[in-house]
Every structure is written in structure tokens, then in C-alpha cells.
Amino acid sequence: MNPQPVKYGFVAALGLGQMVSWGVLYYSFPLIAEAIVNDIGLDRSSLYAAATIGLLLAAAMAYPVGTLIDRGHGRKIMVGATIAASLTTLFWSHAATAPAFYTAIMALGGLQAALLYEPAFAVVVRQLDTPQARSAITAITLWAGFSSTLFVPLIQSMLDTFEWRSTLMALAAINITIAAPLYLWAIPPVTSASRITEPKTPTANEPSLLPILHQPRFYLLTASFCAYMALFSGFTYHIYPLLITLSDDTQSVVLAIALIGPAQVGARVLMLLFKKVTIGQLGLLTGITFPVAILLLKAPPSTLTLIALCLLYGGANGIFTIVRGMAVPELLSRHHYGKINGVMLVPMSLARAAAPWAIAAYWTHTDNPQGAINLILGLALLVPVLFAFAISTNRNRHTF
Prior knowledge:
This protein is mainly α. Helices cover 80% and strands 0% of the residues. The chain is built from 16 helices and no strands. The chain has helices spanning 3-40, 44-70, 74-93, 98-111, 117-127, 130-144, 147-161, 164-186, 210-213, 216-246, 250-258, 260-272, 279-295, 303-332, 337-366, 369-392. The chain is globular. The protein starts with a helix and ends in an 8-residue tail after the last helix.
């Protein structure tokens, strides 16, 4: 059998599944949380604290999930987690007490460790060699890049037409009827006799993991990615309430946020035209774009500035996602992808977990959105600075 059609179907199915997973588990939260705050008066900082605890659970799950996927259990993990996320979302729609709300939000946060980019990337790397993996990861992020474009206006429309409980029930139905079958079809079971391409069999001469963990580059890259994850998480969770606070034009805000997806996709397509550009160069260029975008939050609010902000941020985020996915094989080592990525994901997940709560708490404390904007800008500045230090250090040639 020609492996190419199988590969393209595998990548497309994972990409579509990721588009739904991101929409249901991630992009829906700021809109749903805002509706809950306005409807039943639960404190915003408490809701975001629950989300933070959920992301802490995801941090604890990151390494074991990656290890299980390396052992071939990606299908069970991603299909099972999708079903669990759908049931949890349905439970959330019927929650009537604060503990029930917080339990649902925390559970959905924890399930992100088994459903969002990292497990999908691990499945790809297990199935494909390094050059194919880079192309596949780029393609998957192209598909998933449409998540915010599709789900933000869809969820806002459902909230305007119905209410948040019915919206959650609809999201649960979308997740279990679309994402679960895609993952079930695309990811080979652990008993599969063969992979999509010839497997990379380890040899007795494969280098040890320990020298990689002793490199300054490993820790500087991890620090840069921690700043990025905190920026991404904090900004994604707060972009809607921040822009609504800065501008009273809800339609312009929704339009601008919806453009993040096309900007991500457009930047990734553009990247395909420059295949000779290294991951280091891509990371530095896109890292610098983050603070430039966030600075627009300090400009006088208008439809033009909102659109420019989301286009710049979306484009930078679209490429930096690929940088993060390919940094291990291209900047550290072609071996031990799952283990290295799992180790890096622990502090990255902690940073992603802490940022939404910290920003929400500071915003509540100061009662001023400018404080939240300053925190986000500080994170945006750290991304390129730390990444520049990382790529300027030498890599130990014996680790790859």
C-alpha cells in the first residue's frame, strides 16, 4: 500500500480533531465564564482559579501522558479523554452549585494534557520520521488554526441566541460526535503491527538523556517556552474581557478575535514558502512580534487597532507553535522526543496554569485593566529575550 494517502488522512483527521478539541476545551472558556459571571454572579477570579487548578492537573499529567503515547497508547488516551471531556461539559451545563462549577472547570483543564497540541505532536513524532513530522505538525496546526475563527463566533452566536447552559450542551455534542470518531479512526491502536512509516528503532549507541538535561540551552528554551505558555494562556483567557473593557463595540471585538485563526493559518502557509529558514530564526522573529502586538493594547482602542493586534498576535502564535513542536529534534536532540518534551511540559504547564489566575487576581485587585495588560506585556518581552539566549548557546554535539 502506498503510505502517502494514509499519511494525509492521518494528518487531516488529527488536524480536524484538534480544531474541535481547542474550540471546546480552550477557546470556549472565556466566553462561557463571562456569561456565568454576568448571569449568576460567581466571582471571576474564583472561576479562573478553578481553571488554574485544572491546568495544574494538566501539568501533573503531562509526563505520564507523553510516556503512554510513546508506548503506543495515543488512541486510547485521546479518544477516552474526548469522551470524558464531552461528559464533563454536559455535567457543567447542569451545574447548580459553586463546587459543581469548579469541579467541571478543573476537570476540563486537566483533560487538556491528553487532548491539545502536545499529545497530538507526540502521536505524530511516534508515527513519522523528523522531516515528515515537521510537515505534519505544520499541517495539523494549519487545521487547528481555524479553531478560534470557527468557535468564537459560533459560541457567541449560541450565547446570544440561547444561553450558556444550552451552549455547553451543544459543545458537548459537537465534541463527542466529531472529535472522538476522528481520533479513533486516525490513531493506530497499540496492537498495530506497523506504523505509517518505517519505525525508528533505537540502537544500543543511542545517546543518553542526561547530557541533554545538563545543557544551558535546554533550560533557556524551557524558560522561553514557559513565558510563551503563560502569555498564550493568560492572553487567550483574558482577550475577550480585556477588549470588551477597552472597547464598547462587541461586534468589532468578536471580529478581531475571530481573525486570530486566519492569521495563524496565513503565517503557517507563508512559512511553508521558506523551508530553509531554521527553527532558531523563526523563533526569534516571531518572539519579537509578541510584544509589538501586545503594545497595541495601550493604543487608543479602535476597530483598526483591535484587528492589527489580533493579526500580529495570531501570526506570531501560529509560527511559534511550530517552533515549540520542533525545538526538541532540531535544537536539542533527535532522540528521546517524548521524554524531553515531557520534562519541559511540566514547568510549561505550570506557567500556563498560573497565568490566567494571576492576571485575573491582579486585575481584580487593581480594578484596572492596564495592570493586566502590563503583566501580559512583560511575558511577551520574556519570550524573545530568553529564546535569543537559548539559541546563542552551543549545543553539545554528543547529545544528537
